[in-house]
Design goal:
This protein has 202 residues and is α+β, with helices and mostly antiparallel strands. An eight-stranded mixed beta sheet has the order 1-2-3-4-5-6-8-7, with helices on both faces.
């Protein structure tokens, strides 16, 4: 790992602007996300591992922390500064420092925070960190090909569709497998217009 790739998995990475703060998720965050977990179970409609209900939320956060300890993922909790409330979670995963690639996903927000511009602020901070601090060459995004809201959100920040992986993974309903759409942003695209365009939308 060279000096620019300063992703230390034990590091307390905090990303913030005037609207949002992202920090590493902790087990005590169960309390901060419990209301969304109990009242809005549909949030995880397209997720293989849901966080609906206290038991599932505890499991979700424990798995996220374990993945960080195993240096595979870096999960964040999202705090909305305007409402002074915790809004949801997101993470870097499938991190390959040697190849300079990672995926950005496991993103969910409570309904009160959708369509507010919060996601664009989160994505800007995460992409800026990935491309400018970690010096990644490529950031990949995936979603259930039926998840129209998620796909539209990714396109609106400047992601390019690469294709669809057919029958790529199981879903929470074991009888059904999902097709995954793959999108990405490359380093030259970030510096060549995606960053500037996204800034205008903030």
């Amino acid at each position: 790992m060279n000096k620019h790739m300063n992703l230390t998995f034990s590091q307390n990475i905090i990303l913030e602007d005037e609207t949002v703060l992202l920090r590493p998720i902790k087990i005590t965050d169960v309390d901060n996300l419990l209301e969304i977990s109990i009242k809005e179970p549909e949030t995880w409609k397209y997720s293989l591992v849901g966080a609906d209900g206290k038991e599932n939320l505890i499991n979700y956060i424990q798995l996220a922390i374990k993945a960080r300890e195993n240096q595979k993922e870096f999960p964040f909790i999202v705090f909305d500064k305007k409402s002074q409330k915790y809004a949801g979670s997101t993470r870097f995963y499938d991190i390959n420092l040697e190849y300079k690639t990672l995926q950005l996903g496991y993103t969910w927000y409570g309904s009160a925070f959708r369509g507010t511009g919060l996601n664009k602020h989160c994505k800007f901070l995460l992409l800026e960190f990935a491309f400018e601090t970690l010096e990644m060459e490529r950031v990949e995004f995936r979603a259930d090909n039926n998840n129209e809201r998620s796909i539209a959100a990714m396109k609106s920040i400047g992601c390019k569709v690469e294709g669809v992986l057919r029958s790529n993974m199981p879903t929470a309903n074991n009888q059904i497998r999902r097709d995954s759409i793959v999108l990405s942003i490359l380093k030259e695209e970030w510096f060549g217009g995606v960053k500037e365009n996204l800034m205008k939308k903030l």
